[in-house]
Write a structure and sequence with these properties.
The structure is a single chain. The protein contains two helices and two strands. It has one domain. Helix 1 crosses helix 2. It starts with a strand and ends in a 16-residue tail after the last strand. A two-stranded antiparallel ribbon has the order 1-2. By secondary structure, the protein is an alpha+beta fold.
Length: 66
């Protein structure tokens, strides 16, 4: 598990975009950091736990793509 140290003004979606390349994955960060859920905009220096992404198989892919 990685750790991200916030910059002043960071928000959950911005952090997800920096860490995972997709702001829609903010829920993963929020799930692992429940003690920080009351923060909308972070100050600098807050440590955020960032779980490693696990690739999920897509059943719609052809067998040779899995």
């Amino acid at each position: 598990m990685k750790e991200y140290i916030t910059r002043a003004g960071d928000q959950w979606d911005m952090i997800a975009k920096r860490v995972y390349g997709n702001e829609l994955l903010a829920d993963i960060l929020m799930e692992k950091n429940p003690h920080l859920l009351d923060i909308f905009q972070f100050d600098a220096g807050v440590a955020i736990k960032c779980p490693d992404m696990v690739m999920q198989s897509n059943k719609e892919l052809p067998p040779w793509r899995k």
